[in-house]
User: Fold GNAT family N-acetyltransferase from Pseudomonas benzenivorans.
Amino acid sequence: MNEIHVRLADWQKDNAELRRIRETVFIAEQAVPPELEWDAEDAEALHFLAYEGDYAIGTARLLPDGHIGRVSVLRDWRGLKVGDALIRAVIAEAEKRGLQQQMLSAQVHATAFYERLGFEIVSGEYLDAGIPHVDMVRHSASP
Assistant:
């Protein structure tokens, strides 16, 4: 396996890769309706792409208020620390921009993953697109 690297993506320029990953993970695998997957926030969000070599294998986005979302890694690369690299890159960028609190809506099965990265559950369980979720928050260490 080649080294995994993460970079900031451009919603316009990298749109095909961002859509390929999210459509595969959310729409095809998890049956999220397309009208729930794509929203107006994509245009204002910071997007991230994870690569193995020159092949995009994961993505995430950061909204201006510190919400992290649309975290997705293609099936063949799950369990290989791609998600860790993605979330660490998003947190670093959020902190660079002065966002001392990061929030996300996590699928319940992924809560332990996010807890390892410093997030805490702050809500009860609820359904989003028919999938059980909880809200999670992470506070950056004060400078």
Observations:
- The CA atoms of residues 19 and 52 lie 17 Å apart.
- The radius of gyration is 14 Å.
